[in-house]
Write a structure and sequence with these properties.
alpha+beta; 266 residues; two-stranded antiparallel sheet; 15-stranded antiparallel β-sheet
Length: 266
């Protein structure tokens, strides 16, 4: 079983080339699926048309480093005690989340502390909070949580959960930083409400897949969730990690392509 290891993908390519040599016109390709909790076993596809063989092999390599991630951003979900967690928290294999708050100076920020409780994640500035706090814009500065992803993330795969959101009083923004060119996209409530599903107790889930298409290839380096009015908790985040294969892997794939072409000409 591959279990997401790229080396397994390389061996898979070699195996397929050997099958191609033996059977010439008929090739069984094992497609490696993304690693997801409780996911099904790898599927088997019977490919009769060899022109799709190399494309399938490339997808096999790429999918070895795709992984669905779902993190509950509560104290119990993160295995933390309720309260102050310092300036940042790192979730291995997913992201580092840090807190900051805006200053009076345009574009200025001060570091803040991440606060976690049973409702979700928030932030506060210089003064320790009295009681529980989320992200707020109530004390002279707008709080933000910045999620810096460990690998690039498909924008269309991001799902954000909020608690305590009041559409008549709260203002929540999402700032997306493109992994390729560093450009930023700012989504205010009016931009993302159409992608939101409301639940009980003012909980809300925003599926960015309603706003971005997988086909447009938008990949994120980071996501900033900010509060411009009122107060909310960030309760969960889901996304799909995608990692470009290393040069060595691509080189080995290229060697496989040359072998394929040579045998086809022979």
């Amino acid at each position: 079983m591959c279990n997401g290891d790229r080396i397994c993908a390389v061996f898979n390519i070699a195996r397929q080339l050997d099958l191609l040599r033996r059977h010439n016109n008929r090739l069984m390709i094992v497609m490696l699926k993304p690693r997801v909790p409780g996911g099904a076993a790898a599927g088997v596809v019977d490919m009769k048309n060899r022109q799709f063989t190399l494309m399938a092999m490339l997808l096999s390599v790429m999918s070895c480093k795709m992984m669905a991630v779902a993190v509950t951003l509560t104290a119990s979900g993160l295995g933390l005690s309720v309260g102050d967690q310092g300036h940042s928290i790192t979730v291995d294999g997913a992201f580092t989340v840090s807190a900051r708050t805006t200053t009076a100076e345009p574009g200025g920020y001060n570091n803040a502390n991440v606060w976690v409780n049973s409702s979700g994640m928030g932030a506060y500035g210089d003064q320790p909070p009295h009681g529980n706090v989320g992200l707020d814009a109530l004390q002279g500065g707008n709080d933000e949580l910045v999620f810096d992803f460990e690998t690039t993330v498909s924008a269309a795969s991001v799902v954000i959960g909020l608690k305590g959101y009041n559409r008549n009083a709260d203002g929540t923004t999402f700032r997306l930083v493109d992994a390729h060119d560093g450009s930023e996209t700012l989504l205010s409530d009016s931009d993302w409400l159409g992608a939101a599903t409301f639940g009980k107790a003012n909980s809300i889930v925003i599926d960015l897949g309603e706003l971005f298409s997988v086909d447009d290839g938008t990949s994120l380096a980071s996501l900033t969730i900010g509060q411009t009015a009122g107060s909310v908790y960030v309760s969960s985040i889901e996304f799909t990690n995608t990692e470009i294969p290393e040069p060595t892997t691509l080189a080995m794939l290229g060697v496989g392509c040359l072998v394929f072409i040579r045998k086809k000409k022979a």
